[in-house]
Amino acid sequence: MSNHHYCLKVATFLIFLSLFTFTYNIFAQNLPNSTSTPKQTGQNNFYFGLYLGSGANSWQITPSQFNLMFPVTPSDFINATTSVTDFSYAPNLNFGLEIGGSRSWYGAFDMQFTFGGMTGSYFGISTGLNVPLSNNGRATLQLGSGLFYQISKKNLDRRRLQQSVNLDGRFFNNNNTFISDLIDENFGLRPCATLRLPIGAAAHLKLTGGYQFNFISISRIRFSQTRPSRNRRNTSSTTTARFRTDDGIFDFQYNNQRIIRTPFDYSGFFVNIGIAWIL
């Protein structure tokens, strides 16, 4: 990542942090205190919520060709080439759980599955403030932020090995398919604002927008192999070995240039829309 790009990301984060702090200070003054009566301000009811929706993430994936040359054994090499198409925004499906008070703080856990050149999974935890927009507290503005872990995958190669081999202390045989995947892992912060509007007895329309900051990014090559079990339950087992692309033990190229990680940027704006059931 260039210094200019990094500075731009930090500046955007500071702007979001300043806006969040300013907005929180305004709305926090209007929250009920311990001396307020329920008749004047409404009750701070505990709730449990489920959410299902879809949306789009900023996903700066440029047209790319990746080449992997990995020496599995002195006589057997994984020599794979794959292409990735251009994506600026990637669609997603998301699901979440939430608990909190209708007029106080909330906590949430959410999962997301993204499709755009590379398939991705997202897991996040967040907390924030519920700001009621109606007397009964059902229409709500949520201001929050959270931490996330995101993993994106692209298959590079599938083949049978010429001979069985040990990689990273794990045994891979030559009887089952040997799979090579490119993995991007990202850790970061996601400030967001959510508008929740009632459309039924428990159902609410939920609109969320925010910005994703990726502060730690790691690229890996993952080798895996699934073998059928010989027991009576007819289950299978999966063997996996992971190597960071900056380990220097193999050749990893992007558009015919050797790199230590993918140049993709998963930071940027996101928007989701869906239905929340508040119980």
Plain-language structure description:
About 5% of the residues have low confidence. β4 and β5 form a beta hairpin. The protein has one domain. With 279 residues, the protein is mainly β. The strands form 3 sheets. An 8-stranded antiparallel beta barrel has the order 1-4-5-6-7-10-11-15. It has a 4-stranded antiparallel β-sheet with strand order 3-2-13-14, with no helix packed on it. The two termini are 44 Å apart. The radius of gyration is 23 Å and the shape is elongated.
Sheet of most strands = 8 strands, antiparallel, barrel
Gyration radius over CA: 23 Å
Question: Which structural class best describes the helix and strand composition?
Answer: mainly beta
Give the overall silhouette.
elongated
The stretches of 5 or more residues where confidence is low (pLDDT under 50) are 28-41
In DSSP terms (H or I, runs of 4 or more residues), the helix count works out at 2
| Average pLDDT, all residues | 82
Helix content: 10-25%
Major beta sheet, strand line-up: 1-4-5-6-7-10-11-15
**Topology pattern, helix = H, strand = E:** HHEEEEEEEEEEEEEEE
Instruction: Kindly estimate the percentage of residues that lie in beta strands according to DSSP.
Output: over 45%
- Quantity of strands, as a count: 15
In angstroms, what separates the terminal alpha carbons?
44 Å
Count structural domains. Answer: 1
